[in-house]
Structures are given as C-alpha cells and as structure tokens.
From TrEMBL:
InterPro entries listed in its UniProt record: Aliph_Amidase/BUP, C-N_Hydrolase, C-N_Hydrolase_sf
GO biological process: putrescine biosynthetic process from arginine
Protein name: N-carbamoylputrescine amidase
Coiled coil stretches, renumbered: none
Assigned keywords, A-Z: Hydrolase
Enzyme Commission code: 3.5.1.53
Keyword Hydrolase assigned: yes
Organism: Natronocella acetinitrilica
CDD domains tied to this protein: CPA
C-alpha cells in the first residue's frame, strides 16, 4: 500500500542527435532521483531524440520502435535497479504506417504497468505532429501502480482541462505531463514570457480544479530546424511540481540539465477537496453542450 508521503522526481535535460547519449542522460537522471529518495520518476517527452516534429520528414519514422522495445527494455532495467516507477515517453511503432506518441509506465520490478497514447495531436508551425502520430485510442484512463493511480497525459494534452478532469474523475491521484515546448526564434522577450507563464498557469490550474498534484517535465536547449540549421526551437525547460492548490513545490531551470525531487504529502488532496468540493458541485445535468465542437 502507498505510504503517507510520495517522493517524486523529474529528469530535465538537453537532447542531441546522439540517441544513446540522450537515453543515458535520462537513465543517469533516474539514478540521481532515486538516490534522493524518488519512488516515481517522470521523464520528458520523446527524451531519446531531438524533437523531430519541427519538419515533416519520412525518414524520421525510422526513430520509432515497438513497446516493449530497446528503450523500454533499458528503462525497465533502470526502474528495477533503482526500485522506482518510471514514466517514459516513446515514439511507438504499433505497425507499419501506424505510430503513436506514447507514455509508458514501468513498475519497480521492470514490468509495464500500462501506457497512454497522446490524445490531442497538434499541427502548428514547428510542431507538425499530425504527420507522425495517430491520435491515441486508449482514452483518458489512469494507470495503477505500486505508488498510486497515475493520470498520465502528454504535452499538448496539458492545455485541455477536459483531459485533466476525466483523469481525476477516473480516480487519478496525480497528473503527469511529459512535454516538449519552447520558443520560436522570432518571439520577442515579452512574447516568450507570456507563453511560458501561460504554460505554467494552465497546468497549475489543473491542479487547483482537480485538487491533485501535477508533475511536468520539459526538455531544454536549442534544437535546430533540420532544413534550416540557423533556425529552430529553444526549449524552455522549467520542469515543475505543483501541489493540489497549484502551489509550486519545485521548479527547474530554463537552461540546464536538472533532476528535481520533491516529497508530496498524500493527505493534501483529501484535505483540499473537502474544503473546495468542485467534484461535488459540478452540474453534470447541464454540461451536455461540452460534447459539441462549438455552440453556433
């Protein structure tokens, strides 16, 4: 049974063209977090490679792999060696021509506890994910583990309150977001500040609205556009952990490899939900229009 506290870790790092070096950074971060007492470790989105979705390139499909596969095998070994649950992001090759952006949950014994396939898929300049990823088909279903029931979502999902709420309604005890987000070079400093603040605010709001801790892990560093190396994305790091009232418990740097570790008090969610009973006061009999794309 999970204890009264849970120590969690985030592994934030730069990604280069060397996939094995990137994976080694992730595994080293798992070890560092476990040494600090982490029982649950979250890795960043697509942590083994540069963020290849800046362009549409058929050759990038070669980066995909099955689950289980080479990446999950190595991470399973790390989870078992360090006695912690690991949440990792994988470019999943489900079949020829069918690929997903998938978060895999690895148990302490190295077994696969479950997976979540990214549901919301962006298609925007620098984030051409619809070319690569089929939308998830597993729904918003938490994954049961030895450290609790995890509501795992991925990156673009983090902007949608519906996804967080559905995970909470299914009994998730924490919300976890592996992510890859940053600034375009044409953004001025004011626009950069607005974007990063909005990103932090929306996820803190999910914590508040659902009375749950939120874990967010993002990469950092400049990654060049494959077709225009002098252009690209500057990922803003800033991985953070928020408590069930949205309070920031720990935050990573904008521009550094960092392992962030915090101990959560599991009783806080119960106490917060008793004081702010949003789930009790929902008017589900009047929310039918939420199932419409737009109210014309």
């Amino acid at each position: 049974m999970p204890g009264k506290t849970l120590t969690v870790g985030l592994v934030q790092h730069r990604c280069t063209a060397d996939a094995e070096a990137n994976l080694a950074r992730s595994i080293s971060g798992i070890e560092e977090a476990a040494r600090a007492g982490a029982e649950l470790v979250l890795l960043q989105e697509l942590h083994r490679t540069p963020y290849f979705c800046q362009r549409e390139q058929a050759s990038a499909f070669d980066l995909a792999e099955p689950i289980p596969g080479p990446t999950t095998d190595q991470l399973a070994d790390a989870a078992k060696r360090h006695d912690c649950v690991v949440v990792a992001s994988v470019f999943e090759r489900r079949s020829a021509g069918l690929y997903h952006n998938t978060a895999v949950v690895l148990e302490r014994d190295g077994s696969i506890a479950g997976r979540y396939r990214k549901m919301h898929i962006p298609d925007d300049p620098g984030y051409y994910e619809k070319y690569y990823f089929t939308p998830g088909d597993l729904g918003f279903t938490p994954i049961d583990t030895s450290v609790g029931r995890l509501g795992v979502l991925v990156c673009w999902d983090q902007w949608f309150p519906e996804a967080a709420r559905l995970m909470a309604l299914a009994g998730a005890e924490l919300l976890l977001y592996p992510t890859a987000i940053g600034w375009a070079q044409e953004d001025d400093t004011q626009e950069q500040a607005r974007q990063r603040d909005a990103w932090i605010t929306i996820q803190r709001a999910h914590a508040v609205a659902n009375g749950l801790p939120v874990l967010v892990c993002n990469r950092h560093g400049f990654e060049p556009d494959p077709e225009a190396p002098d252009q690209g994305a500057l990922f803003w790091g800033s991985s953070f952990i928020a408590g069930p009232q949205g309070e920031i418990l720990a935050e990573g740097a904008v521009d550094a490899d960092q392992t962030v570790v915090v101990t959560l008090d599991r009783s806080r969610s119960e106490a917060v939900r008793r004081a702010w009973p949003y789930l009790r006061d929902r008017r589900i009999d009047h929310y039918g229009d939420l199932c419409r794309l737009y109210r014309d």
